[in-house]
């Protein structure tokens, strides 16, 4: 993506873009615009408009304007109008609201915008110019599920050529018309969205393997004849002919994929019955303003509850309150007497604060009847080699930390899993393995995720946290979306405010 965007020179070959084509890209340098206002940062996405605006403003700021300046500013005004400069702030503001930046921050400096939210401003910047070619590197990072839905609609309404890197399967299905598969240094382009690519890639690979199997059988048959009759004078000519046929048969090269799926399976050591959790009139927050007030709900055994809502609304705080990391300001949280909790925190730096080998770290969670070989086997299923398990936890990437925590939960075998954004930092293969493992998990699941495919495939119930309160929906995420559409059309739905 850096090569396509002109930020990195290729070792060989070249990338050419038509001079008349405007290229826009989602920047990752979120601290590069600290001295600009949020609105100006977005408008800078249209380089030509920003240049005209800057020069126009400079001339208007002169103490005295010469005749030459007057003629120049007249030309600039004409160009400014051609580029829709007079509506620039309104259009930039609309995009900022779309990505969740509140109105009161639009005229403030970028330095006042929280990290993570700065990337939302940069996403608005990339969209602002409506370029002919748009490069988006992980555009759904730091977005909540509703903002991702908004982004899908915005991109689908545009005619730009787009090149997107993303680990969000639903987003890729909803936006992309082609998939470029980069594996072992080779790039192959498949028509269709992500699901269609997966089907096509599997079919192509299976067809190559099938063709190779037939060719190998043919070679074996010909070789048997050659070996048997090459010394036979009456059939030597036929044997020579078959030997030449063997030389002409070419097997297709089927490289093993560099992608590997970790093996995940979550079990529960102790089964619960009926009610797993009961929350009564819980309020929680920081300072004078509570994030939620008087929350009451119950979770039955075996339910898979997705907690959704905009960033900063209190989803993580709710999970931390449920697991006991935070004491409720008021009310009670009561788990089933036999419940054992397995918690996957969004920020799990504390889990890896101690510097130790991966083997020693995982040994901390083994059962009394687990030996070292069993722990090594778990690490192997998580794709850590025998050499890698000797390295220290300080050297782990975000995705590797996630896999280690999944191993911990596999060993703990809790009756309730509570997971806060577990797909963050994971590659596609790990996300799919996690998705499958949780679908098969027999216990109770409460989770927060911005991955729509993940939520759609798992949730049997939706709890939505909004500025107006916490709402409960009994059904899948797709049912929930249909209910929202029905409510917008004044039809009855199943969305209820939790009291």
UniProtKB/TrEMBL annotation:
SMART domains: AAA
PROSITE patterns: ABC_TRANSPORTER_2
Name of this protein: Probable ATP-binding protein YbiT
Every ABC transporter domain range: 277-492
Family per record: Belongs to the ABC transporter superfamily. ABCF family. YbiT subfamily.
Family annotation (InterPro entries): AAA+_ATPase, ABC_tran_Xtn, ABC_transporter-like_ATP-bd, ABCF, P-loop_NTPase
GO molecular function: ATP binding; ATP hydrolysis activity
UniProtKB keywords: ATP-binding, Nucleotide-binding, Repeat
Superkingdom classification of source: Bacteria
